Amino acid sequence: MKRRNIMAVLLAAVMTAGLGLTGCGSGGGAPAGNTGGDAAQEGTTAAGGGGAGAAVSSPGDEYYMISFLSGIDYWKTCYRGMEDAASLLGVTAKYTGQTDSDVAGQVAVLEQVIAMKPKGITITCVNSTAFQDTIDSAIEQGISVVCFDSDSPTSARSSYLSTGNEDAGKAAAEYLVPLCGNKGKIAVLYTVGQENTESRLKGFQAWCEANAPGVELVLVNDAGDTTTATDNMAAALQANPDMAGVFCADGTAGGAGPVAVEESGLEEIRVLAFDVDKTVLDKVKDGSIDGTVAQGQYNMGYWSMMMLYAEANGVAAADLPGYVDTGVTIVTKDTVDQYYVQDSKGGQFTPDQFKGEASDEYYMVSFRSGIDYWKTCFRGMENASGFLGVTAKYTGQTDSDVAGQVAVLEQVIAMKPKGITITCVNSTAFQDTIDSAIEQGISVVCFDSDSPTSQRSTYLSTGNEDAGKAAAEYLVPLCGNKGKIAVLYTVGQENTESRLKGFQAWCEANAPEVELVLVNDAGDTTTATDNMAAALQANPAIAGGVLPGGAARGGRTVGGWGGGGGRN
Predict the structure, then answer these.
(1) If both were cysteines, with which of 12, 61, 142, 397 could 405 make a disulfide (CB 3.0 to 4.6 Å apart)?
(2) Mean pLDDT across the stretch 456-472?
(3) Quick check: helix, strand or coil at residue 95?
(4) Helix, strand or coil, per DSSP, at residue 287
(5) Where are the beta strands (DSSP E) in 174-257?
(6) Measured CA distances, 429 to 402, 407, 448, 470 (Å)
(7) Radius of gyration over alpha carbons of the chain, in Å?
(8) pTM
């Protein structure tokens, strides 16, 4: 992120994410469809005129970060993000933790913090089940709680921010495999049985299967121990002297893998590590390895603080995102200097830097601009704009015409707003226009539907595979964990295919007696209704159904099913 744009990017991102949530204001003017007139005429919320209104903050408002293994560099970066957010908001961030991985010790630290009655707490939990009662107790006392990096999923915490490990594995493969010529043997050094590294392996494998089927993966267990990892990697290299690359999928592997490669004497092996330990960064800097995968530690701290503050100032916990993937970045020799842990503290901003002027305009741009789905999105943006003291505006293309939405975006750019958030009807058609806006100093983020090849700063959307798992976790037990369940979805459409994948995965792991009946809605309400009717006639024993797309939800009632249409 370029320094000149940091505040505009943070403002735009907050309006779309951290405080750009529903449920804390009147919503103001609802978006209307674009009738071909001036794009600025759609919907507007000026500062104080329909948003949530300015929140109240004071340096006496304290928010805590709690970790285990307190003092390691990893948490320092997380806390610097929290400090920066706190300084922008005009509140106080504090850090404490348990020096080791003792569960009871960290629970005691949490209890001590709760006794001090802070406004909010963000905590990384050394154990996924041990903190439920203590976290729930804090919430009952009016203290907001979010988790980061390591979750307490059964607690009532508002949100969980962490690395999306499967996507991290895909990002690693996308970088490393082409360096190896998209073929040959690539070792994956990881902790067998550990959920995060297993997920990274899964993502790495998936990318290779889809993009480089000539790659043969050699799986090596690091056993969570540096010495064992080094020995096992050395043995794998000895057995496979034609190894083309090594992906070190966790911190232990990141320290051990490069050592084993160096000691093997084998040349031209491409190496990608994980995490930003100083030893690893030094190897990236001197060219010993090709790069490392940096987790979004700063994001974890920064957005934890934003969510805690939002909830403390009236945003309902239910309106915060349940999970936030804080992303990864591939660190190379060109960028490595940015990733050394800084000695300077965070918190160098002031609240004035976070507030804008009513003349600062930020736009939301959509396709199918009249539907209720976008009205809810824009209401979230309005609420955030009211807090920030800026003006939110909405416009869009009435249908799904790509050229039409590009033209709307060009009209908005011509008005020189501070920032734009856009949902793109096509994933490739907006790259040049978005990049042009950024070159003109306009911050751009995407939401709901992405322009992944553009230079947009971030992308906010539903995690569709996780959504499918959540749907299965709710529906399948209602059906007795067995029998036939129909999935009505748009075949070939990425979002609904991902929802189906998540639904299937949950059933395979938790309800193997379920038989899924797949029904194509073809993206059309009438076709969806007819196809579902046919499926019900052919399968009168169907116990339930999931409708993961807009077309699937619309239309006349079939067998007791029905509902209003919406955005997919």
Answers:
(1) 397
(2) 89
(3) strand
(4) coil
(5) 184-190, 215-221, 243-248
(6) 7, 11, 16, 32
(7) 25
(8) 0.75
